[in-house]
Amino acid sequence: MGYEIKEENRDHAPLERGFLKFSLPVESFINSQIVAGIVLLVSAIAAILMVNLGWQNSYEALSTLKLTLSLGDWTISHSLHYWVNDGLMVLFFFILGLEIKYECLVGALSDIKDAALVIVMALGGMVLPALIYSSIIWISESSNAYQGWGIPMATDTAFAIGILTLLGAKAPRAAYIILTGLAIVDDMGAVAVIGLFYTEQIEVLPLFWAALTLLVLFFINILGIRKPIFYLMGGFFLWWFILQSGVHATTAGLLAAMMVPTRPYTNKVWFRRKMQNVIQDFQDVDSLGTPILENEQQHALAVKAEDIAKQTTAPILRWGYTLDKPVSLIILPLFAFLNAGVMLPTIIPDFKDTVVTLAIIFALVLGKGIGISLFAWLGLKLGAVRLPKGVVFPHIIGIGFLAGVGFTMSLFISVLAFEGQPALIEQAKLGILFGSLIAGIIGAAILFLVSQD
């Protein structure tokens, strides 16, 4: 959150004024809602260009680059691709878990009457895409591609919200809430699919230790311990045990997020009283014209104010804000770069070589757009759901197609679904890229046209 600071309240460094003319627009852009989607898009385009402009060997060498951790006789070595997908992406799932927990407690999913519309839409956006994909695979008799049915089920929140943000006032505020809630429920379904259907052989002993670690984190929570270090250590052990169990390691991020405290250490009354005391003490020791560098008492009071603020904020929000930018601007773009590199066809391939691509395109575009709209319409007709104020049904249709932008999670599931089948992974990537692009354009166009009426 930014604060406007007047010029007379600043103490500039010698070259700072000129630098601010460049840095302020950059900072404003980084803090905007669309930046995460733009960085993801740039990373994916960079990977595609690298593969198709003669640097495929360099791209593959970077993806398979070995990174090794060792301590004495203990060594663990994996490729960069593995460390990102099974390691760093745990932080993405952790933030996703925080968002799910928050929305269920106080957000769009906390009131069943408001959540009903989002849940019904999400069900349509998961069921119909999976059915369309499976039907096309069945018709084509491509028996080795059935496991990809989970690919078109998820929604990429960053991309979808970024497109909606570009529309500005042309999309009602309620549309953001619906799309965010829809994406979260979609991702809940996708995480369940990963855990249940894309899991290797289960090793019971590591799973037992993972459950024990989760229980320890639960007790740390109910004991009122809010120090991040305890949850960081617990989360690391949880990740390690789940990784060894055969369940996909990113599940650890979601489970750890469920254990994060929601209650602040102190209440608002204490915060207001303490801050008033700090401000009064700050004024009492103030010397006009003396910088804070020369007044240790004032500096100590400023630090105290920061500590008071931390004790009054909920860890679930504070930790999420802390991790949001590193994950959205570093980890997700790195994931996109290492997973989106696909060779674009220069000739029209045979149908059998495009079955997965076509199945995913139809599932993302038609499955999402029609499935979400159809389930919402049925819910409205049955009186089970209601539209928020300012939202008309054509908005729902536009949101449904926007939800077809399934980039990040779809890429993630495709690697799991077709592990050891590089040809099918390449087809899946093409389907995800083109399907997401088409769905995004259609969704944005519908919302734009609705705003013109």
From TrEMBL:
InterPro entries: Na/H_antiporter_dom_sf, NhaA. Gene3D superfamilies: Na+/H+ antiporter like domain. Keywords: Antiport, Cell membrane, Ion transport, Membrane, Sodium, Sodium transport, Transmembrane, Transmembrane helix, Transport. It holds the Pfam family Na_H_antiport_1. It comes from the Bacteria. GO terms for biological process: regulation of pH. One of its GO terms (molecular function) is sodium:proton antiporter activity. It is found in: Cell inner membrane; Cell membrane. It is a multi-pass membrane protein. GO terms for cellular component: plasma membrane. It catalyses: Na(+)(in) + 2 H(+)(out) = Na(+)(out) + 2 H(+)(in). The chain crosses the membrane at residues 34-55, 117-140, 146-167, 174-198, 204-225, 237-260, 327-348, 355-380, 392-418, 430-450. Na(+)/H(+) antiporter that extrudes sodium in exchange for external protons. Belongs to the NhaA Na(+)/H(+) (TC 2.A.33) antiporter family. This is Na(+)/H(+) antiporter NhaA. It comes from Shewanella polaris. The lineage of its organism: Bacteria, Pseudomonadati, Pseudomonadota, Gammaproteobacteria, Alteromonadales. The gene is nhaA.
